[in-house]
């Protein structure tokens, strides 16, 4: 029935109803997505309750209630927050150093053929050596202090950002660059308005990959050579067979990884808000 046969249904009311329906549909879709995203963790927690209810020894795996009690205790005595702060600073510093160098070299080799010929081959040779395999060398050169962890995390985060920055620049549509030349863009304007926006999607993929390698490297570095941090806390707990602290450490690492990836996705959507593929439906 149209508003011609029913005067009460005006175009403005139809528009409001359409917007309302779209909003409700969007909320339902987001709720469904959230339920799907958390379905496996929820099933895991249910299984956790079931298995620790007399099915397996709590010495091998703590109950959820024991884990909550341990978390509260470690927060109250300051152990958890201090080690969490130290681990976070280590990880972010390593990402900042390795990511910055990877971004700069990726931009340089991506834009200049001569730089690619000079730098790309040795970088690729080093990339083929797993960065964690370099741990013994890094420990000998830098000791067990903060420098060795910074170097190791920087190595782990460098390559994904470098490769994706290089790939992002080389994947830019050449016609856009030609258009910039026609409009008389300077080198800086070309970089700001064409090259960087065109490569952002690829660069952010590198950032997300680097975040995963960052936490992985931190776990190894803190477990083997550290006097503080979440990994150190887990190592001490292992020696004392404190499974609740070990499991808590693993959960913290998982949460830190998830939170950092969530932030990276939010930044990616913001930077690429002009791109239809990154806009909310």
TrEMBL record:
The keyword Transmembrane helix applies. Residues 80-264 form the ABC transmembrane type-1 domain. The lineage of its organism: Bacteria, Bacillati, Bacillota, Negativicutes, Selenomonadales. Belongs to the binding-protein-dependent transport system permease family. InterPro entries: MetI-like (IPR000515), MetI-like_sf (IPR035906). The keyword Transmembrane helix applies. The chain crosses the membrane at residues 31-51, 89-107, 128-144, 150-169, 190-208, 214-233, 245-267. It is a multi-pass membrane protein. It is found in: Cell membrane. Keywords: Cell membrane, Membrane, Transmembrane, Transmembrane helix, Transport. This is Sulfonate transport system permease protein. It comes from the Bacteria. One of its GO terms (cellular component) is plasma membrane. One of its GO terms (biological process) is alkanesulfonate transmembrane transport. Gene3D superfamilies: MetI-like.
